[in-house]
Input
Amino acid sequence: MKVVVFYDADNDGYMAAAIVSMYLDGIYNGVTKDFFPLRPRGKVNEKKKNKMEEADRNYLLDLSIPEILYFNPDKLCWYDHHKSVEEKFGRVAIAGKQEIGKSTSRLVWEDMFSAPMPLVVDLTDRYDVFRDEYNSYFEKSVIPFQCIMERMRSIEVYKKIVQDDRPSRLIATGSYLWKTEKDQFYEAQFLRYFPNWGIGGTVVTKEIQFPGRFAYLYRLAEKKQIAKPLWWKPGLSFYINQNDKVDETGVPFFTYSVRRLKDTANCLDLIREFNFSGGGHEAAAGFRSEIDHFRTSE
Output
């Protein structure tokens, strides 16, 4: 039995891939597994296509890359929860599960195991969809858990953590990382500020490692009316973080992470308004471009 697993290179993707690996180990003897982390809109080279052709089953987790979705649907298992590809749900793969409102790791667990969902999967699910984000449990447990997990990019490590399901020490260590991140966020400098984007404005930063948590801090400050950091501007709707990249051929490109700062804002509407090629959810989205859209600083 040969299996190829493509997964998003974030916490939810790694957790989902680890759960798939656990499932395959439990039902097959001598299964051969190849794991390939990808980013949304990532490229699938010939080596990976050959692996897919040779495999008995292909898994696509937390991604909707067309080269994989349409390669051979008859042997594809697709798990996804992104609003931007909802029209493809149930129409591409003959196996898998797609549903908005749940993380991919949760979808995989519910589809493959009848046992109650492990706490570590629940923590990942809460963070990925920002469920109950204004609850104190979110900042004290959910985010610290993600802070430490993002430093451990290994399927085998994730599997061990799911099997043990004792996240208390990880959360304790992650709390120190979360404090360090907050200090960095408060000192971050704007790349640009657009007062009219999104009916309230958009701020842009560069090379922030975890933009989702940057946006969370803004929303938390506004929601709880706590002391505002230097980067806080009233009435903002969106936050964009830019990262400079170079592709396999040496050609530069730019990736952009979009996060909403108001519950009523829609990230997908923003990227569609400007014809950016990307996807995601109402609360979080991303796009890639060969153009540096924000090269002019304030």
